[in-house]
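During the second year of the project, the team shifted from modelling isolated chains to modelling whole assemblies. The rationale, set out in the original proposal, was that interfaces cannot be judged from single-chain predictions alone. As a representative example for this report, we include one of the complexes processed in the last quarter. Its constituent sequences, exactly as entered into the pipeline, are reproduced here:
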Amino acid sequence: MTVPQAPVPETAIPETETDGWVRLHPLTPLLRGGRFLLVALAIVGQQGLREASLEVFLAVVAVGVPAAITIGWLLWRAMRYRLTDTELQVESGVLTRRSRRVPLARLQSVDVVRPLFARFLGLAELRLEVVGGSGGAEAPLSYLGEQEAHQLRARLLDLAAGRSAGDSSVPAEQEQVLVVVPLGPLIWSTLLGPPLVVMVGLLVVLVVAAAVDLTLVGGVLLGAVPLLIGVGSFAVRRMLTEYGFTVAESGDGLRLRHGLLETRNSTIPAGRVQTVRITEPLLWRPFGWARVEVDVAGYSAGGGEEQTSTGALLPVAPREFAHRLVARVLGGAPPAVGDRPPRAARWRAPLSHRRLAIGLDAFHVVSTHGVLTTTTEVVPLTKVQSLRLTQGPLQRRLGLTSLHVDTAGRRLPGTVAPHRGDAEAARLLADTTTLARAARAASAS
Amino acid sequence: MTEQPEAEVAWRRPDRALLRLRRQLTVLLLTLPGVVAAAVLAVPFGPAAGLAGVLAVAVLTWLTLGAVTRRWAAWGYLEREDDLLVRRGVLVRRTSVVPYGRMQFVDVTAGPLQRRLGLATVTLHTAAAATDASVPGLLTAEAARLRDRLAALGEARQAGV
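Output from the structure prediction step:
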């Protein structure tokens, strides 16, 4: 990407905003420098302390603190952003100047994230997801004042939706809270997953070990420590990120708020959802609970830590409520799954064939599958990228074919209708192709 | 998958040169080393072992040639009005439907062997990572024609993600 105007020399950047260029919040270097310093201290300071020389430690602090703040200040001075009617422009970098244009037409979602330390200072980070964004947020603006972040988010969403900045934020600010997930089900639903399985498994192993030889028990417990830490951190992290999960509907899309220490405020504009997944783990079934996840085109798998908390639209709720919310997100209830695969499917999928079912109407394709966790995926036909039929050797013997529906979602890349009859799959492929084409044409006009 | 004889006619295949290439590779990489190994085997274990070895190599070559031919014959693509159909695979059969409007970009690639024979592979990419539509062994002219046609159709029917 190129800078339209002649690249301004570093020293010539005016201190005050011109032409709508805005700097990040002045406390940014402090926060960024502070984080940088913590890491540096952890590495160098530890060594200094181990050698029991307080002088070394103090020297590191004396040099490190000003250095980190100076670097942070230089970076802050070099970074500025501007919002035009069609794009967000971000310039940054001291040694390597980077100028980035984010076209708002490709905006998929906007997150306002407030890490714990930033919250103390009243700061927030703005993360945008755009189509084709590769790994991580495309343009993180960290940090902005909280007010500024929310205003900028509202303006971005207005512009992305084609509303002019003038008539903005009147309907968008009014929101209707659909659900606040209570703490009880959140905790229980998290524990009724991998943590419970691990605990029960460990208990069984312990009992067996104790029955064989009492001296084995200590070894087993010691060996289980990493596993317990892993499971424990999973449970704690999930509860922390999904604490106080609130889903609200507003003029600019669906709003999600969650997090205990680091709070996140996501907005998904209408019509951006590529795939919806409703999961019902085996252990949740007595309670009738379900979890809903969505994917938009920008979120990508395997990204940094910022990716881990995204995805859940609703961490846990009664099944009926989950389905109602899904209908709301998709702008219409998806068809009920009812079409079952032929009887031959039970030889290919002995554990899950009872669950396999699909549904197809003019707007959505739905498929249910899964062995222990019942998974239902809904794909809006306007989001279908390609369709595939696959047939393995065993499937061919049984006269079965699977239909795959691909979308641009990275974490939830579409769905699959497993083990349909050959003729039915061919017909499904033709029908879905035709319906998807009609849906595309209807949404384009 | 159902057979539709009336539609079979329109399916296009990779060029026969690709089949020849794959067969030559089979002979070069399987049959020749196999025969040499059988000959070496004959030195300590006698001519009977050598003969058995040659026989085994012959059977293996015959089977591989059959598989290569079937694999080649299974590849096919069909340019329909609104989408491209690509099918492939013998053991696992796959059929892909990619609407032209969903195409993000087209790749034409050719390795050294394909290039010597004037062949190229055309791969279609959409915004979905799972999309799997590529046709190998097209004559360079046909590959260029397909690429340009797909690009033109893709542009004409482009739909937002």
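Chain A is about 40% helix and 25% strand. The two ends of chain A are 31 Å apart (CA to CA).
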